[in-house]
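Per reviewer request, we include the raw input and output of the structure prediction for the construct analysed in the revised manuscript.
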Amino acid sequence: MLHSRTLLDMDPESQQSEAFLFLEPGNINLPVKLGANNVMTERRTGPRHIIFVKCDSPQRRNVEVDLNFMPPSIKQLYGLICSKYSDYSFVYALSAQLNQDCVPMECYVYLKMALLSSLASLELDEMRAPISLCIISNDSYMAHLLLHHIGQLAPRFIGPHEGGQQPIQHTALSSRYKWAMASPLLLAQQGVYYAGDWNRLTSAQTEELEKCMENGSVPVPQLQSEQPLNAAIWTYWQPENAANQSTAFAKLCPIFGLPVYMDAQANNTLWDFVLGQHQRDVQDEIHDVFNIPKDDIRTMVSFLHQRQVAFTGEAEQLLQKYYVVSRIEQPTAFSSKTYVVLKQFAESIAKLSMRLLVLEADVAVAIFHCENFVRSIFGAGNCPPPAVVNLNVISRVDPYMNEFARWLYQYLDRYEDDMGIDKAQPKRQRIDSF
């Protein structure tokens, strides 16, 4: 078999027996929903950076988990992973198993997680626009492949097209009525509008999309009105193909808030997967708990659109402090839109974790993706985080993220906790490299 199946190697010596045990419906004990008004009362039983823990740990007491109406395949994967690891490990596994017919499970996991978070950010009754993504990549083929396939998990998906946002005029419509034709971006409402390669768009096309994202609305010229932007705009950008990299990058950061950096995956696993795909005439479709049907993912996403999550005090304080410190450390990369996207990203991680509360761990995941982008584009800096690692064994996810959380707290401890949004005074002591 291909190397991709080792990603979810729970315990190599007992994988088969444990997987069989957990896949039995009667042996999956899932947490029940506790109620919408419970208050988060975390109990610290160890170092403060140990925030990626099992769902039944004392730190997660009174945390609401809601798996109601979720497909059985989602419940099975959740029960299998969260019985031994954190709910973020479940999100990691859920993201990794996407598009196994295109890429191995262990490749581009963080990109797939960002795309899945963007899908989860779609909300039915909110005026806030969902997370729009600009993928910075050097591999246009893989970027297009993943964005095109994962985008079709949304309720609506509009792919690349010629022309701008002008509505298509149909002469066959009756002239007795005044028809208001929808533009492509309006057709993608409550879904994904995939613009394709940003470098290939004309200046008029990019200006239209930029104005829509900045204003949070889509103009309807026929009615002389605007509609709220309820579509996630996806695109990818190759720096080497840009006519002026600095100018283009200066626009992308404040517009998208948090561009996503797509790591290069030049490893043997990907090459073996590609060779294996071409050597076989018929693809072997794997049916197990780690290969969730696309219809089940669509069902899960549709239910997540109807959920509302709330921040705990600790999570909100961590997000605010990181944003203020980052504006001091990297003023070029962080804008007011960055804070909004970070908050939405943390909310999406909480939704994908089947929780109704946004915890510090969710904020740490959003910060992890942000730091991956910042350090990859602007350099490691004076206090670099742990290197980004593509994990191929699920048991390593929590220790790795707890190590990142340790760095995050030490990184923020250089500044006072009660600093304002406009200024901050750093502490005299500086953390040592580790």
